[in-house]
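Suppose a colleague, Dr. K., hands you the sequence of a protein chain of 622 amino acids and asks what its three-dimensional shape might be. Before reaching for any lab equipment, you can write down a predicted structure in token form. Begin with the sequence itself:
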Amino acid sequence: MAKLNKVVEEVISDYNFRREQRRSLEAQWQLNINFMMGNQYSYLASNGEVREDEKLYFWQEKEVFNHIAPIIETRISKITSSTPSVSVVPASTDTIDIESAKLSKEILKAVSNRLNLVDIEKSATTWSEICGTAFYKVIWDTNTGRMVATDEHGNSVNEGDVTIEVVSPFEIFPDNLSCEHLEDCKSIIHAKAVPVEEIKLQWGVDVESEKVHAFTLDGKANYLGGLGYDAHINKIADIELTGHCILIERYNRPSKKYPNGRLTIVAGNQLLFDGDLPYINGDLGGRVFPFVKQISNSLPGNFFGVSVIDRLIPIQRAYNAVRNRKHEYFNRAVMSVLAVEDGSVDTDALEVEGLSPGKVLVYRQGSKVPEIMQNPKLNIDFDEEEERLLGEFKTVSGVSDMMTDSYSQYTGMSGVALELLAEQDNSRLATALDSIKLAIKNVAKYCLRLYKQYAVLPRLTKISGENGGVQMYYWDQNEINSDDVVFDTSSDSGENTAQKRAMLLDLIKQGLLYDKDGGFSQSTRKRCLDLLGFGMWENSVDLTTLQINHAQEENLSFCSNSPVEIMPIDNHKIHIDEHIAFILGGELKKKANSKKIIAQILAHIEEHKKLLKLEEKEQKGE
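The predicted structure, expressed as tokens, is then:
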């Protein structure tokens, strides 16, 4: 027990040290969230806390004109819409490996649909754009998937499945803040607040609740407003959670002392787990952290990225000040400032009633007549400063007019000019776009490697064929032969549907998509419609794809010693090519009776050739 207590004490001490080490970063993240929400009169005090400015005078205009929120929303929309889909490269040119790569791609599609990966990407991008960094946690959840058995207590035992969680930077604590990449860290701590009931349910251990502080967005800042009215806005508030404790997971990279790495989980001053890293998710069968990092902008020599909000805060403060000073001038111009001689009028009544239209202003006989003070003319520098600040928003954020405004103003521009503007917009978001692409690629690799490790029982997956059909496929871990994930060339991150349509039309005009007969094949036609997003419009059957699928089924029948007969509707040329490709592939040579199978296929090919010659003679009229 003493040894366990020592481990717990060491993990908690390490967590407290890391939390204190990056406290200033957390304060900046809180400030960024406040500015995103509109609580833009907050600032960082000398002690690192986030505080708010109060109004100095009752008449002071103190409103927020939030330009940060639409900028971040535009960046998030642009980044998430530019994420390409992924494919898997076969391990070799063998037919089996090619089919395995297709299956792996379909598995990733199934994971994306089941977990709604689009929303996960958007959530992670929101965190990375506001705080500069976000994390994906790719783990294996044994409580998901279909039920396969029951234990001795009658509880269901599920087959398990991949789960992808979005982790905010507030929960991640690296051992060294100077490491730029996850791979450079020796250990990572993931700490989060969880209910003690959940610890009991998952680990079967009773732990005591702790004083856990968390941030909530329910706080109201009511120091805003202007002359005659008050306003409030949401802000981050610090609350204390009841019935919770801090669950600390410390992941240590494999080393000489721990060849398989080490995972230590502590909660409520009790040790829940201490053992090897559970997932074989690294290259060449290694074990690495189950986290994938995504950043908005990189900062050399820093683990956490930088948000564009850091740079926008000074501009937003200056813009709010300019707009509020202009409104204060308008208030003085409309309501006027009255100069009166002491004792000449009833000032109390004048302050309450003001100068209403038709008001009879009575003043003491012989005293100076009250007069309205003339306001100086509004300086043109206010308008120039406002326009300059609006331009700085676009310059600093990388969000141009083309992203935020209507495209109607660009109708008179040439296509080349529009393309240059679009490329310029993408280049200004290059760091964030590259980061999310790399993150999605690594997440896909981790998913395939987890299935390779844990998918022991056969699983059923729907696979969509190229001809629009749907097939049910049983697979297990042995079917996954490659985790080399790449991006689809058909979904360029810098192109939208309109640009794809224009590019495709240009290719057609140049004649690059026509076959040798100068026409459009059925498969080319369908692929073009798929690339444009109109694949559902094409409901006709692709006979070429059906012929290829039928020939591949015949190849499998040869391997299982099932009889194969040539049908009158077979396309002999396609069947001959598919059978020859199957013989030349390396997978057939691994079978014990490969010579017998090859002899049967060769005889089958000769029959196809004879029938093909007869068809050619009939077409020539011989």
